[in-house]
Design goal:
The chain is mainly alpha-helical. The protein is built from four helices and no strands. The longest helix has 25 residues.
């Protein structure tokens, strides 16, 4: 009975393993990248490899080198800021902001006689 049971069991296990793989053909193994193997122990390095704490070196750029693109963007930003400041100065020249008789109103408030004066919600003055 053991002579029959042992071969059947071996054939059944091999078929089971072959059925679980995507195809019956053996796959070509590619070398795992450094990122995959860095955290995993292997037979060559049974313990986790030591981490390299050196700062990564930049490629294709020298330290302190300014690109033309970055310089042009800087000049564009400076022009935009100067343009905005000129616009703000021009806005502040309007009498609404420069004339004290406006009291923060868009138009100067009406001057009413003392018995008809009203309390203003904008500036908090009766006029």
């Amino acid at each position: 009975m053991w002579k029959i049971m042992l071969p059947v069991l071996l054939i059944g296990c091999s078929l089971d393993l072959q059925a679980q793989s995507s195809s019956g053909l053996p796959k070509k193994k590619s070398k795992p990248s450094a990122a995959e193997t860095q955290g995993q122990p292997s037979s060559l390095q049974p313990y986790y490899p030591t981490k390299n704490y050196e700062p990564e070196k930049k490629k294709d750029k020298k330290s302190g080198e300014v690109t033309y693109d970055a310089r042009d963007k800087f000049y564009d930003r400076m022009e935009q800021i100067a343009r905005q400041e000129r616009k703000n100065e021009k806005e502040m020249q309007k009498p609404q902001y420069s004339d004290p008789s406006y009291f923060g109103h868009k138009r100067p408030p009406k001057k009413r006689p003392p018995e008809k004066m009203k309390f203003c919600k904008v500036c908090g003055i009766r006029h």
